[in-house]
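Bench log. Compound arrived from synthesis this morning; before running ITC I wanted a structural hypothesis for how zinc ion sits in the protein. Inputs:
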Amino acid sequence: MKTITSRELESVDIELGEDMLQGNRILAERNRRKLDEAGVYAVDILGSVGSGKTTLVQQMVIHLSGKAKTAAIAGDLTTTIDADRIQQAGAEVVQINTGKECHLDANLVHRALSELNLKALDVVFVENVGNLICPGEFPIGAHDRIVVVSTTEGPYMIRKHPYIVMETSVVVVNKIDLAEIMGVDLGQLRKDAQDVKPGIGVVFTNARTGQGVPDLLQLLRIPKS
Ligand code: MG
Ligand code: ZN
């Protein structure tokens, strides 16, 4: 079988791309300082459309209510569907519509953070744009990153996204109630994640019922207030 890699095709673009990624990293560090100065913990949530990111954020907001003051930044190409849902769960939300951009970057997140009264907050959830490819290359300054895969996406989601898993603190396997129907082996998904990144946290959830959400919150480095 003949295989062509993008590196061969785009060698001219690589230098330009590196500058842009480096610029983003500097802005991500600025975001981190801004968050740390205000004593706010932030988590970047990645996953395909339909993996359950928004439902997980809703559940985390609900589980933390009365314990931590939460807000969310919701990235989406054009809609406010996710932002509306998170707001209903009780968190203040800033919506970022990225248009055709398929990821959030540190600059967009900086602008969104400026819309929040960080001093009054403990936790900011950042729901990234729904795909598992390029958001991985754009750190936004968050303290942790979660990758959400769902059993409905089939058995190979972890193995097919090793780069993003390497840059992740916790893998969430969602929709575990459908694992058997989908023929997905949860133990194998855990093993796949730990093969890519030994020691990585893996949590099994059913975000619709909240199952597994306390386990997820425990793996995140949310400051105890
Ligand atoms: Mg969503
Ligand atoms: Zn992108």
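What the model suggests: The chain has one domain: 2-7+19-220. The longest strand covers residues 41-47.
ITC booked for Thursday regardless.
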